[in-house]
Amino acid sequence: MFKGLNKLIWFLCRSVFLALPLLLASVNASAVAAEDTDVEFAIFSLNDELPQLSKNKARMLYRGKSKRISGSLKIVLVDLPETSIHREDFYKMLLGKSVSQMNGYWAGLAFSGKGSPPEELDSDDIKQILKWLNDNPNGIAYAPIESVPEEVNILITVPQGE
Amino acid sequence: MLFRRVVSIALPIMLLQPAMASIELTDNIQLSGFGSTAISKTDNRTPLFISREITDETCYDCDTVFGLQLDIDVVEGLMASGQVVKRTQDKWSDPELEWAYLAYEYNDFEIKAGRLRLPLFLASEYYYVGQAYPWARPPQEVYDSILGFTSYDGLSMAWHYELSDGVQLTVSPYYGFERINEVELGAVKLEFDTEYMAGLYIDLVGFNYRIHSGFMQAKYQQRPFPNTEKLDIYTLGAEYSYGAWQWMAEVEVDRIQANWYASMIYAFDDFSPYITYGESHQSRKSKGVTTGVRYDATSRISLNLEYQMIFSVEEGNRGQFVTSPLAYAESSDVDLVTFSINFVF
């Protein structure tokens, strides 16, 4: 039934593999472009004891691959609602991932007992974020830097931080 | 029966919930679930893939999986987890207890006891969760190499070292006690009396990559034969993502076989096309290409449309079929189309 298609698909597969280097080069270019937006995010906490984060550490935390800071402080993350444009931008900037990619990724972690996805707020209003942080002393959150009050502990800014 | 009733009540409630919310029964108890089902068809009468057995008659339940997972935080650091799965080969009335364990975590050290998942491959821990991997099915060349066995009853320990801010090393030895493993290959039922399964895995993890290496030794007796055999299994896998790209590759080697695959996936927002190439050598002999696309319909529901071609390398060899295609007077090559849906809650 499918035999006629074989050659065609075989050829297509081959050409994809051959074209890979070219595609890669174009991705490089677009990744650079993606960081070129003017939104800047702060990853912050109300807990003054939390130390500054390196970019690597922040990426490990937001991919659920690390749960602790300084070896023993267990960190809790919070997410903005899926409809929030800030959420989309934040993950694109910090990890280069879309919300869909992150969802599939968290499903893998959650069902291997390695961690559950961050709790999701009802809105991306800064008051809600601050209230959640107030209830979670080891919690960290992200928001556009201009909406973040001065007295919070900013752990790193994205994309500038390093 | 009870399982089916729970499913019919729980499922509609969960799929209607907003976002990726599992159900918090109390602050410390969480119920979550996952499932996949597919329409699939080959151009060959020989049943294809262990425990799925897809043929040239359109199949609506060859790939159906449904699982429920209960996670309980007992006290700080101590948790319990149970997972019941209707696997592809199970009837709805007879699902399998895939895992049930207690885990204790102290800083970077973790110990688990009970029924646990064999940590041989990259996707072993979420083998039944279609939502968690890009394909309709994990590549059979590697994932079917140990006949689909996924669990052991025993103990595991794990140490997580932070080598630097961005690199984590995990070392985890495990030991499984005696148990009987059964698998059906078409009309043939194989029974293994496993005396022990002991192994180790080492993972190197960065924010956008993971390298997984595993070793396992199993001592077993295949019933009704009297002789005891030992099998050493070695696995190595790596995944790497860069922007919208994701690459995965794995190798499995033991005394009777060598298998590998490599796959690449590109995410265009909600559409992720992918291509996988795999080979099996020695006991199974085949080469195969899979091309497909995954569509993330919502954060908890995804669809896959996939076309797979498997070519025989030796006439009469079982390849990825459950038996030799000669038994059905069929060609050794096979093409497969699959349309599947996956969800989690």
Largest interface: A-B, 51 and 60 residues
Model regions low in confidence, pLDDT < 50 over at least 5 residues of chain B: none
Rg of chain B, rounded, reads 20 Å
Number of strands of chain A: 7
Largest sheet of chain B: 16 strands, antiparallel, barrel
End-to-end Cα distance of chain B: 21 Å
Structural domain count of chain A: 2
Q: Tell me the CATH superfamily of the largest domain in chain A.
A: Periplasmic binding protein-like II
Q: What is the 3D shape of chain A? A: globular
Query: What is the architecture of chain B at the second tier of CATH?
Result: Beta Barrel
What pattern of helices and strands is seen along the backbone of chain A? HEHEEEHHEHEE
Question: Mind summarizing the main beta sheet of chain A?
Answer: 5 strands, mixed
- Helix content estimate of chain B: under 10%
CATH homologous superfamily annotation of chain B: Porin
What is the percent of helical residues of chain A?
Answer: 40-55%
What portion of residues of chain A belong to β-strands? 15-25%
CATH level-3 fold name of chain B: Porin
Overall geometric form of chain B: globular
Assembly state here? Answer: heterodimer
Please characterize this protein's 3D structure.
The complex is a heterodimer of chains A (162) and B (345). Helices cover 45% and strands 17% of the residues of chain A. By secondary structure, chain A is α/β, with parallel strands linked by helices. Chain A contains five helices and seven strands; from the N terminus they run H-E-H-E-E-E-H-H-E-H-E-E. Chain A has helices at residues 3-34, 55-62, 85-95, 99-110, 126-135; strands at 41-45, 68-69, 73-74, 76-79, 119-120, 139-144, 153-158. Chain A starts with a helix and ends with a strand. Chain A folds into two domains: 1-34; 41-158, D-Maltodextrin-Binding Protein, domain 2, CATH 3.40.190.10. Chain A is globular. The longest helix of chain A is centred in the N-terminal third of the chain and has 32 residues, at 3-34. Chain A has a five-stranded mixed beta sheet with strand order 5-4-6-1-7, with helices on both faces. By secondary structure, chain B is mainly beta. Chain B has a single domain (2-344), classed as Porin, CATH 2.40.160.10. Helices cover 5% and strands 59% of the residues of chain B. Chain B is built from two helices and 18 strands. Chain B has helices spanning 2-15, 140-143; strands at residues 23-24, 29-42, 65-75, 78-86, 96-106, 109-117, 151-164, 167-176, 179-185, 188-206, 209-223, 228-242, 245-254, 257-266, 271-282, 286-296, 301-312, 334-344. A 16-stranded antiparallel barrel of chain B has the order 2-3-4-5-6-7-8-10-11-12-13-14-15-16-17-18. The longest helix of chain B is centred in the first third of the chain and has 14 residues, at 2-15. Chain B starts with a helix and ends with a strand.
